[in-house]
Specification:
Elements (H helix, E strand, L loop, with lengths): L1 H9 L4 H26 L8 E2 L2 E2 L3 H17 L5 H19 L1 H6 L10 H19 L11 H5 L1 H20 L3 H9 L1 H9 L7 H6 L4 H30 L14
Antiparallel strand pairs: 1-2
Helix pairs in contact: 2-4, 2-6, 3-4, 6-9, 8-9, 8-10, 9-10
């Protein structure tokens, strides 16, 4: 175990990345636990206020992220400074992304349906960093042989091709597939060759005069969402808590 740790974590300089990921996940989990206790009115915790202003935890998160980021740039990856900076950065990133939806909407949507985006972004970020930690390099560089790496033209073609697949998948409205495709190229290839989601830039550009393609894409998207929407919501509720019910809209009597 010690040999594996030194060879795969310490020597490649991955210890700061592991510490940052661990701090990121733990900070998110602790933050969600505390906010759910505050929401339920349990425990000694409460919202932080200053002069009647609610201080969201994204504020200290930004401070920690900046401090950890600048500290990591100025530190050695193999030294104690780099490790401490990685932990600080991970904590700050966890606090910031826990309120990603608030930043996106510029509104306090933490316990609303829109607030689910924060949980999605945190899970995606943790998964992508985990892949990087496991040794996956962006656009499949790690899959190249030594001969291919020495051939600059072949390496450039491989990276460019994988980058193109990710862009096509993104244009087809498959953001998650595109993101994971940056790390795992075959994932981007699958997203690039399959039909686009309705309403995506690709569908608007290429399916305008192809009613059969539009209908097939809409049917596939409906079946996919129907199959995975409920399990996805259940997982998000378990991780982040159930959102508040939307208030009923009063009828317009004008």
């Amino acid at each position: 175990m010690g040999h594996w740790w030194v060879r795969n974590i310490v020597e490649p300089g991955k210890l700061p990345l592991l510490l940052a990921l661990t701090a990121f996940v733990l900070t998110f989990v602790v933050t969600r636990v505390v906010t759910r206790l505050i929401r339920a009115g349990r425990g000694p915790f409460g919202n932080v206020r200053a002069g009647g202003l609610h201080i969201h935890h994204v504020v200290p998160g930004v401070v920690l992220t900046l401090g950890g980021g600048f500290g990591a740039v100025a530190s050695d990856r193999h030294g104690a400074g780099g490790a401490v900076s990685a932990v600080v950065f991970g904590m700050g990133a966890g606090l910031v992304l826990d309120e990603f939806a608030l930043i996106l909407h510029l509104d306090d949507v933490y316990w609303t349906e829109d607030g689910r985006k924060s949980v999605e972004v945190v899970v995606l970020t943790a998964a992508l960093v985990g892949l990087l930690l496991a040794g996956f390099s962006p656009f499949g560089v790690n899959d190249l042989s030594q001969e291919e790496l020495q051939d600059r033209g072949g390496a450039l073609a491989t990276v460019s091709g994988n980058f193109l697949f990710s862009l096509v998948a993104l244009g087809k409205g498959k953001a998650r597939t595109a993101l994971f495709g940056v790390i795992v190229p075959l994932v981007a290839l699958v997203g690039a060759v399959r039909l686009a989601r309705p309403g995506s830039p690709w569908a608007r550009r290429f399916y305008g005069r192809r009613p059969r393609a539009r209908a097939t894409a809409a049917l596939r998207a409906y079946r996919h969402d129907r199959r995975w929407a409920r399990p996805s919501r259940a997982v998000q509720d378990w991780i982040g808590g159930k959102p508040d019910p939307r208030p009923a809209r009063l009828p317009d009597h004008r």
